[in-house]
Design brief:
Blueprint: H1 5-10, E1 18-21, E2 25-29, E3 39-43, H2 55-76, E4 80-84, E5 100-105, H3 124-137
Antiparallel strand pairs: 1-2, 2-3, 3-5, 4-5
Bound molecules: adenosine monophosphate and zinc ion.
């Protein structure tokens, strides 16, 4: 896509700190890192979100995430790595080219806001009803 910042990164028109690439995916450091080592993995072929991305690219990203997460663990020795992926402006997707965030957390560093929420028990009837609605739409 012409005006897509991540397509430009893949094409080398915008600089990036690359950590890995293969025929389908490209991984690089986020320039607004939530924590040191915050890495993005993207498909080389433009797709906006989880609804658009071909299954082969989706699979390739997740296989690559294992390789990159292993490297993050070896290089940085974090106490954990969060994987996060946003779809749609309603959940604050800012760059409309599919990307998986890998965010390490180092010992002694503050809790990551993306991994911390209050566990409030839900309404089981509503959970059941919603689950059935989704299950009925699976194809
Ligand atoms: P989001 O779309 O909200 O999942 O996040 C987009 C992410 O892309 C943000 O974490 C940005 O910091 C990151 N980002 C935007 N432009 C660049 C860039 N040129 N190089 C690296 N990361 C970027
Ligand atoms: Zn793109």
């Amino acid at each position: 896509m012409n005006d897509c910042i991540f397509c430009k990164i893949i094409q080398g028109e915008i600089p990036s700190v690359k950590v890995y690439e293969n025929d389908r995916v490209f991984a690089f450091e986020d320039i607004n890192p939530i924590a040191p080592g915050h890495t993005l993995i993207i498909p080389k072929v433009h797709a906006e979100n989880i609804w658009e991305i071909p299954e082969e690219d989706l699979a390739a990203i997740h296989v690559a995430s294992k390789k990159v997460a292993r490297a993050i663990r070896e290089a940085l020795d974090p106490i954990g790595v969060a994987a996060l992926q946003l779809n749609g402006r309603g959940v604050n997707q800012m760059v409309m080219h599919y990307h998986l965030h890998l965010v390490p957390r180092m010992a002694g560093s503050p809790e990551l806001s993306i991994t911390k929420w209050d566990l409030v028990p839900g309404d089981m009837a509503l959970i059941q009803q919603t689950g059935e609605k989704i299950a009925g739409a699976i194809r």
